[in-house]
Design a protein that fits this description.
Elements: H1 2-17, H2 21-28, H3 33-40, H4 47-52, H5 57-66, H6 69-78, H7 81-90, H8 93-102, H9 105-114, H10 117-127, H11 134-137, E1 144-145, H12 151-161, E2 170-174, E3 180-185, H13 186-190, H14 199-202, E4 210-211, H15 216-226, E5 230-234, E6 240-245, H16 246-264, H17 279-306, H18 308-313, H19 321-344, H20 353-386, H21 394-424, H22 434-457
Parallel strand pairs: 1-2, 4-5
Antiparallel strand pairs: 2-3, 5-6
Helix pairs in contact: 3-5, 5-7, 8-10, 15-16, 17-22, 19-21, 19-22, 20-21, 21-22
């Protein structure tokens, strides 16, 4: 699919360069707005306005929503007032609000000046809600029905209002104060036995909704859990103010997953894509965490320095330090990633800490014993017999394997519980991922290793 799109993209760019505008327009109108927006990524700045003006009004608006913010700003600056108004008239409220959030102040003023009063009011309403809240990602364009309406009246209302609504499949039943009473689907209306049946008699009253201040991640999980196409958003008095549609929820889930991946890799999350980020941007996002981890890793050096005499007396112990630290870090990372993912999906809560501790302990013991047994055989058969290293004795082998087993247990405990502790402190659990876990486990593994060496080898 990607290769085919690249071929089409190259053909379109060639038509633009050869000024075959009629042919180019005929092809563009058959394409999905998302794919058309993808074509704009390969254009030079001077070509963007030219190709955009080839698009019919509706396709132009749909494509504009999917375009890169830099390209959107370039077009807005080049639009006449009439052109800008035409595009704004075709946008849904939530898309218009998203665009306004990305633009500099002078561009925002021009957008709001050209927007009609109703759209301007709706944009301002959405922008008043906290960032990352349900209110900030909702749209105010939905179909509302009254409980006294008949099926026939409801269908007629959908026909009249549906053109301007983002979704019409789910309709919400409100009273005169806009209190959410229930919902019906278009399927329910079309299959109703009697056109005179009142909506209040057939509506679903058990409504799942979110409030305007709920976190957007919670909204996305709720939509995913119940497989809804849209989710009603209400205020503190259960008055309907908007809906969140599944496409906006998918965008939220993608953003949250990207943020978690960046945090788990010890980077500050960035709103810019990789290609849009300069080397300086990447440096700013990465260096604070690297410096923090570097400083925290000095504890590992201090531990090794403290046991220099032990290492000098039993040099063979030095060769196994990387293996112990690496295995411990990997073990902790396995547990932390599993727990972080479960926390992000809402499968785990802090009250489950005891269950997590017991389950990770059982898993850690099984993993630790298995790894210790394999390690004992490997060290004795390969390092001692095959490589002929006389400094490796049975006791040295035993120290390494016991330290390995205990390290795995400690690492899995730390990896399982730290993300839950972060969640309890209202921090993002992804912060407690591989880099931090590895740094902590490295120090623990060395302490355990040298303590076993002192006890069993007397060094």
């Amino acid at each position: 699919m990607a290769e085919r799109f690249e071929i089409v993209e190259k053909a379109l760019l060639k038509m633009l360069e050869e000024k075959k505008y009629a042919t180019l327009r005929d092809i563009l109108v058959t394409m999905n707005p998302m794919d058309v927006a993808g074509v704009f990524l390969g254009l030079e700045e001077k070509q963007i306005p030219l190709m955009f003006r080839l698009l019919p009004k509706e396709l132009a608006a749909e494509t504009f929503v999917e375009m890169d913010p830099d390209a959107q700003e370039l077009l807005i600056r080049g639009f006449s007032d009439n052109e800008l108004k035409e595009v704004l008239d075709e946008l849904y409220v939530d898309d218009a609000a998203d665009i306004v959030e990305e633009m500099p102040a002078n561009v925002v003023k021009r957008i709001l000046r050209q927007a009609d009063p109703e759209l301007r009011s709706s944009i301002n309403q959405i922008l008043r809600y906290p960032e990352y809240s349900a209110g900030s990602i909702m749209t105010t364009e939905y179909v509302s029905l009254g409980p006294q309406m008949t099926v026939e009246e409801a269908i007629l209302r959908i026909r009249r209002q549906g053109v301007d609504k983002e979704t019409i499949y789910t309709c919400y039943v409100l009273d005169k104060d806009r209190t959410l009473l229930g919902m019906v689907t278009v399927k329910d209306l079309l299959l109703a036995a009697d056109d005179e049946t009142q909506i209040g008699q057939m509506m679903e009253r058990n409504i799942i909704s979110v409030t305007t201040l709920d976190d957007q991640e919670k909204v996305a999980h709720t939509l995913s859990k119940y497989n809804f196409l849209a989710l009603p958003v209400v205020d503190g008095e259960n008055r309907m103010v908007g809906i969140v549609t599944f496409d906006d929820a998918m965008d939220v889930m993608e953003e949250e997953a990207t943020e978690d991946m960046e945090l788990m890799s010890a980077m500050t999350p960035s709103e810019k894509t990789y290609l849009k980020s300069s080397a300086l941007d990447l440096f700013k996002n990465r260096i604070p965490w690297l410096m923090l981890l570097m400083v925290s890793a000095t504890f590992t050096g201090l531990i090794i320095t403290s046991f220099e005499d032990s290492l000098a007396a039993q040099v063979a112990l030095t060769a196994f330090i990387p293996m112990l630290m690496g295995t411990g870090g990997n073990s902790g990372s396995q547990s932390s990633v599993t727990v972080i993912r479960s926390l992000s999906l809402g499968e785990l809560h802090f009250r489950d800490a005891g269950t997590v501790l017991w389950k990770e302990l059982q898993t850690a013991v099984l993993c630790g014993l298995t790894l210790a047994a394999v390690c004992f055989a490997k060290i004795w058969l390969i390092d001692r017999l095959l490589m002929g290293n006389p400094s490796i004795t049975v006791m040295v082998d035993l120290v390494v394997c016991l330290a390995l087993a205990v390290t795995v247990v400690l690492a899995k405990m730390v990896g399982g519980l730290l993300p839950m502790a972060a969640k309890a402190m209202h921090l993002d659990p992804a912060v407690m991922a591989s880099p931090f876990i590895s740094t902590i486990v490295d120090a623990l593994s060395l302490l355990v290793y040298f303590l076993f060496a002192k006890m069993l080898l007397g060094v």
